[in-house]
Amino acid sequence: MLSSLRPSTSLIISRRKNSGLSSSTVRSFVIDDHRRRLSAAAVPRNDSIEGGNNGNDRSQRRRRFVLGMTGGGGVIASLCGVAYLNEYLGGTDGLLRTLNFYSLAIPKYLEYRMHMMLDSPDHVWDKLHEETSRAGLNKIMELQGFYVKSGQMCAANIGNAFPPIWQDTMAPLQDSCPTRPFDVVKSIIEEDYGRDMYEVFEYFEESPIGAASIGQVHRATLRGDGGRVVVKVMYPGVEDLFRGDVRTIKMFCEVAQPVHVPPLIEIEKQFMTEFDYRREARQLDIVRDNMIKANISGDSNSPCAIPRPYLDLCTKRVLVMEELKGGKLADELKRDVKRQMDRTKKSLEKFGHDEKKLEEGFMKEFALGENGPTSDEYETFIKFLDAKRRLSNAYSAVYNLSVGWLPGVTKREYEGKSSLPINHAKLIDDLLYIHGHQILVDGCFNGDPHPGNILLLGVEEGRPQLGLIDYGQVKVLTKEERLLFCKIIIALADEDKELVCSLLKEAGYSSKYMDHDVMYKFARVGYDEDNEELTEGKHIQLFMDHLHDLDPVKEVPQQYIMASRVSILLRGLGHAVHQSRSVAKSWKPIAVKVLREEGET
Question: How many CB atoms lie within 10 A of CB 539?
């Protein structure tokens, strides 16, 4: 399992993983390992790759990252009795599963903490990131369950917390988790349907098109109407695995990071609703209907498409829904960047100096900067390229109808709309608007919009459209909760600290001192935005721990935990494509309209 580690490291860890870890032993191990890495590392990393950040910046980023490791492990296993673990984690199997994970997590967590204390140089950290992320992925692939969700959070760069090495290593977990044999899938379908599956499906693709933490997805064609569908099939026994895994992480936080316990209580409750696909199908149907009524979904010109569930074919372990034709958003955006790089290269080779300067200016603007171009700036660039495309096609038409008819002459190809760039800024704006509407207007929203659950449709036709899937974690707010959250969003957008604190108290926030500075920062990070100025240069988790140290949290508004998760996930996606946003400012127009219509202003 630790095959990706260097041999000496594997040996050291294997000798310690089943023994007590005294502080002197840990310190000796890490200092020895620190010296080994210093002597073994080839050359220091070239910081120019990351924009020439100085040593202080890199050191600060290391400190910000270390606690991002703690969601998967900690020293809790050595602090609790076997009887308590056995009862709390769901029996002997759960206990062994927990210890299996901690056999990697404990030494690696402590190693990261010690290297942070030692302020190790960059090339040591890079090597450690590479080794540990690979070992972590192997362990996740072995254990699966909720640990897959943890890896997906890393791949999605939740809270802008993880280095690119970790994001890239964990990326396969977004939709390429380990799968089960087709015989297992077939038996589950036929057990739930009580008949041969081919009485329902005319065609069923045996190889899955994707797999996630609790099940896998297959393409199929319905018998009768020939409708093209996708079929989600839940893995056997996965519910028990999830329950024990979530409690393992919560147990660690109770000892090491109590600030994260209240959110984990709500997240555990919400995750436990995923294990009935009939419920998910009904939730999908409700959200889809809400989006169609709001003209946010329904046709190719609307911002998003949401698949229609076949309710009569859904069971506890089988979900059948309309197939959306498209790729994962992250994959499509990567392909878009490559297309534009290829296009720019050809253009610079073909055209003269003036156009070269113009295109270089545009591409420089698109490639650099924390926030990138706005949606309007993207549209200006796209219109410029579209006009050039049309002119080129017109020239090609004239050429093909004249010179192109001559013997031996190759006709010119026409350039389709799919060659045009995708407006990345508009996609982020649309995602924020869609989920803001679900939360603030409908009070019924998907609490898990991670990148693996977002497709991009219509790219080949030149009409990009978001495809939103996976509604296992739908949260419903009461009218009172929804209107109060609208007020919190408006107060955050207006930067009204006193009003934010007053509304937080009304929502149920409680802390030891009720310090308004701490409360305000808690709300901004939780619901609005995260940037280095706000978090004082700290990793978001370190910053939240810092706030907890200043004023320990007793209660958080449980009803808004999943809304906070949506905000953090969408912000993480925005960071990834250089489209950082204030969620509160994006959602304020929606909130103002809701309160006005309800007579609350």
Answer: 23
DSSP code per residue over 276-290: -HHHHHHHHHHHHHH
Which letter does DSSP use for residue 41 in this model? -
Q: Which residues pair with 455 in a beta bridge?
A: 328, 467
The DSSP annotation for 492-560 comes to HHTT-HHHHHHHHHHHT-EESS--HHHHHHHHIIIII---TTTTTTS-HHHHHHHHHHHS-EEE--GGG
In whole angstroms, give the CA distance from residue 311 to residue 281.
Answer: 6
Contact assessment for residue 280 and residue 447, using Cβ atoms and an 8 Å cutoff: no
CA distance 501 to 503: 5
d(CA 457, CA 467): 6
Strands 454-457 and 553-555: unpaired
| 505-537 core/surface letters (b: 16 or more CB in 10 A; e: else) | eebebebeeeeeebbbbbbbbbbbbbbeeebeb
DSSP 54: -
pLDDT by residue (tens digit) across 106-155? 788 788 878 878 888 888 888 899 999 999 889 888 888 888 877 877 77
Under 8 Å between Cβ of 431 and 380: no
Q: What is the C-alpha separation between 23 and 14, in angstroms, rounded?
A: 18
- Domains (range + CATH), the chain: 7-174 (no CATH), 182-211+214-240+259-323 (3.30.200), 330-419 (no CATH), 475-597 (no CATH)
Beta strand 304-305 pairing with 465-468: parallel
pLDDT at 106: 78
Find out whether 329 and 454 touch, Cβ atoms under 8 Å.
yes
Cα–Cα dist 63/516, whole Å: 26
Longest CA span, the chain: 87
